[in-house]
Amino acid sequence: MVQIVISRDGADGLAEWVLMELQGEIEARCSTGLAGNLLGDLHYTREGVPVLIVGHHILYGKVVHLEKPFAVLTKRGARDHGSPGAAAQYLVTALIKTKLLFKTRPKPIITSVPKKV
């Protein structure tokens, strides 16, 4: 039987993250992928509606509170403890209680329309 130890630092040191759910597929311009790159700008309206601007597109979303929160875990292996016989431990570093849901198609942002001559 494998025993997994999960601990947490304290309520004060625990961060709260937000999950973003996008419908469709996002492709990076370069072949290295999206990791470490800027996806877009996230803003909120006065009513609390999340607005995501990606390139020349705008997406409107909504805030959804999760029924069952997620825990973000960090693994502390045997190497971290210095003894080869020590079992791996997991530390709760953050909780995810809400998500931003963007399920509509992106709308193009048009700044100026040229007039016909």
UniProtKB/TrEMBL annotation:
It comes from the Eukaryota. GO terms for molecular function: DNA binding; DNA clamp loader activity; single-stranded DNA helicase activity. Its main location: nucleus. It holds the Pfam family Ctf8. Coiled coil: none annotated. Keywords: Cell cycle, DNA replication, DNA-binding, Nucleus. It is found in: Nucleus. One of its GO terms (cellular component) is Ctf18 RFC-like complex. InterPro entries: Ctf8. GO terms for biological process: DNA replication; mitotic sister chromatid cohesion. Belongs to the CTF8 family. This is Chromosome transmission fidelity factor 8. It comes from Pelodiscus sinensis.
